[in-house]
Design a protein that fits this description.
The chain contains 10 helices and 12 strands. By secondary structure, the protein is α/β, with parallel strands linked by helices.
Amino acid sequence: MSNLIQTWKRNRANRTKEDQLIKWLHKCTLDEYVKAGAKRPSIQLIRSETGTGGLDFTIAKHGNALRVYLNKDTPAYGFADITNKIAAASYWMQHTNSKVKSITLYGDDGQGPSTANYSYSSCSPSVSMLPDPHFFRSHGYKATNYFAATKALKWDDRSDEIVWRGRVNNSGLFSLDPALQDNPGVMQRLRMAQKCQALGIDFRFVDDVNAMVHGPLARARLIGEFIPTLEWGGMKYAIDIDGFTNAWCNFMERLKLGCCVLKVESQFGFRQWYYHKLTAWEHYVPISADMSDLAANVDWVKSNPDKARAIAAAGQELARAMTFETETRVAADIINTTEGAI
């Protein structure tokens, strides 16, 4: 009997903890709506009785409200990964037509196990992309758009220096061994950092990196000061390179700020919802996934400033046209089409 009582107490404690987590997740979701300047919906978060993949969750219409079914197999610590993922998809779902009843979306960056048919980033051609949480939360990068239109420097007044800042959130082996610099199993960002260092390019990691990797990065002089995003409004060039998947806000914001972006090819083929609109050498300068053409293409942009300026202008025009309103319609159309609800 005592064992049964202890089991009952443990189950009750677990249910209480789970209820608290769901309440916290519900609050985080509504907070995302506030940040986006969007009307908060009637939305209920429910622990599903069925399992899906990894951090998947299902959004279903229920009258004028939404219900979000969380994967029953998601561990409590996994909730932290989806705190900012629910609101964006819920908002896009609100704008679909009445024939759409529910969708299942992957609630992490896009690199883990999933059975969902929607994601914010994916390398699977069978998965439909939706505008990401950063785009939603910032109301289509409203502040960046304003800065670009009113305070960003003209091209000729900008710095020629090529700068990148980010984190070591990458897949692969952590190694700074020069002998492994061309090994595709090593983190792409680390290989890029070494190649950039040899070219005098300021590609460094911010100082809030994991303590376990701080020492090796510091010894390699690969740690740099944090630089606010809007500072790229005074630079001609920028670099975009995958983290675990696509670096969601980095590419879009650099385009909006009028930079000529040197985009490193995704090693695993990750993409976002708007990538099909982009053309290499028209909207950005491509760098191969193995970075074998990095030196040549850096030399090209520096030797062809007028062409680099034109690429920056074309990229900015494309990104500027993607507003919160246009991409809300795009997201709804993607869902309507995927669900056969046109």
